């Protein structure tokens, strides 16, 4: 093989390697952008869910105040509201766990007592 052919082969090989590296980096950037968009969408959905749950709790509290204080319905709604408050608190805790603190590298495990 002549020196010119070897040089051309080496240049072509180098170009091929550079093209592969460029393509891999480009694909990685697209994946990062896609993951960031999914995370933003998930956070919006979580916020919406929590706000809607809080709205439902407030509506039930309004109904509860219109019932006779010692009625069975009042006691049932109060029990449901207590459970809803627990669900809301747990959901908020899990969201904070998933979001992590600013500067964290990723999600933290749930805090189990």
- The mean pLDDT is 88
Quick one: overall form? rod-shaped
Share of β-strand residues? under 5%
Order of helices and strands: HH
Q: Uncertain regions: pLDDT < 50 for 5+ in a row?
A: none
Beta strands, count: 0
Number of alpha- plus pi-helical segments: 2
Radius of gyration using CA atoms only? 28 Å
- Helix fraction bin: over 70%
Give the total of domains. Answer: 1
The helix/strand class is: mainly alpha
Name the assembly state. single chain
Largest sheet: none
Distance N terminus to C terminus? 72 Å
Describe the structure.
The protein is mostly helical and 113 residues long. The chain has one domain (3-99). The chain has helices spanning 3-66, 72-99. α1 (3-66) packs antiparallel against α2 (72-99). It is rod-shaped. The N and C termini lie far apart (72 Å).
What is the strand and helix layout of this fold?
Layout: H1 3-66, H2 72-99
Helix pairs in contact: 1-2
What distinguishing features does this structure have?
113 residues; mainly alpha; 2 helices
């Amino acid at each position: 093989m002549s020196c010119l052919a070897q040089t051309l082969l080496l240049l072509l090989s180098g170009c091929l390697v550079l093209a592969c590296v460029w393509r891999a980096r480009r694909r990685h950037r697209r994946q990062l952008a896609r993951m960031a968009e999914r995370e933003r969408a998930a956070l919006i959905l979580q916020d919406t869910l929590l706000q809607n749950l809080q709205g439902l709790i407030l509506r039930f509290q309004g109904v509860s105040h219109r019932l006779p204080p010692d009625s069975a319905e009042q006691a049932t709604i109060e029990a449901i509201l207590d459970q809803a408050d627990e669900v809301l608190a747990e959901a908020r805790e899990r969201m904070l766990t998933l979001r992590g603190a600013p500067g964290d590298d990723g999600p933290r495990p749930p805090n189990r007592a």
